[in-house]
Amino acid sequence: MHIKLRYFASLRERLKRSEETVEVPEGATVATVWNQLKDKHPELAVIERSVAFAVAQEYVDKTHLLQDNDELAFIPPVSGGLYV
Amino acid sequence: MSDTQPRILCKITDQSINMQELADFVADPAAGAMATFVGMTRNTNDGRQVVRLEYECYPGMAEKEMSKIAHEALSRWPITKVAMVHRLGRVDIGEASVAIAVSSGHRHAAFEACHYAINQLKETVPIWKKELYEGGELWIGSQTGATGSFQRVQEEDRA
Fold first, then answer.
1. Interchain CB contact of B159 with A (< 8 Å)
2. Checking CA distances to B112, which of A13, B31, B70, B145 falls within 20 to 30 Å?
3. A39-61 residue pLDDT tens
4. Torsion angle of alpha carbons B15, B18, B21, B24, nearest 10°?
5. The sheet that has B8-13: what strands, in order across it?
6. Is B146 at the interface with chain A, CB within 8 A?
7. Identity of the residue in A8, A43, A80 whose CB atom sits nearest the CB atom of B143
């Protein structure tokens, strides 16, 4: 299956790209793709607890089953803290 | 309130936020109160001298998540209309990056719904801000989250 990945903000700068398409086996979940990415970029482990995931522009959890041609976005923490 | 008029305005823009546009949108003969919130770029943050902020979003999803918040506010409180606008790109000191206006029959619902909308926006709408300060730049995430560590890793890498 082909999955389109989208990266934003700190993640985009860190990976030096805003999107790419990866190939994953049938039955792959969000966790499968995240773990692949983490294997290539071990420094991502530090945002493990705070990154969120969206498929087709809806938040999903890591166990979400991916379908061919899905768009999976990695959402680092959204802006906050300046108005309080 | 006419049934044919839209009750929700959600917008992401790279232009200056015009508060009058929000006020005009939520104005309604049935509304006796309007509460507004405006978030602006402050000149200091966490001991740093802030030069400006830069915002980016996940186009499409950001509008969808804002719209969910507006619908939720309409279902939770007896409010008349709600308008939410977020700016993208460069936002200088003192300029508005986000604005919310809520109208209702009486003030209590407008205050509560407005408070809910800004808190929720900051939690769930995929919009990120980069702080450019004197001596560096930083993506600002949840102050208690792990983003801080990620930033430190990036800074160590550059060192």
1. no
2. B145
3. 999 988 888 888 899 999 999 99
4. 170
5. B8-13, B79-87, B96-104, B33-40
6. yes
7. A80
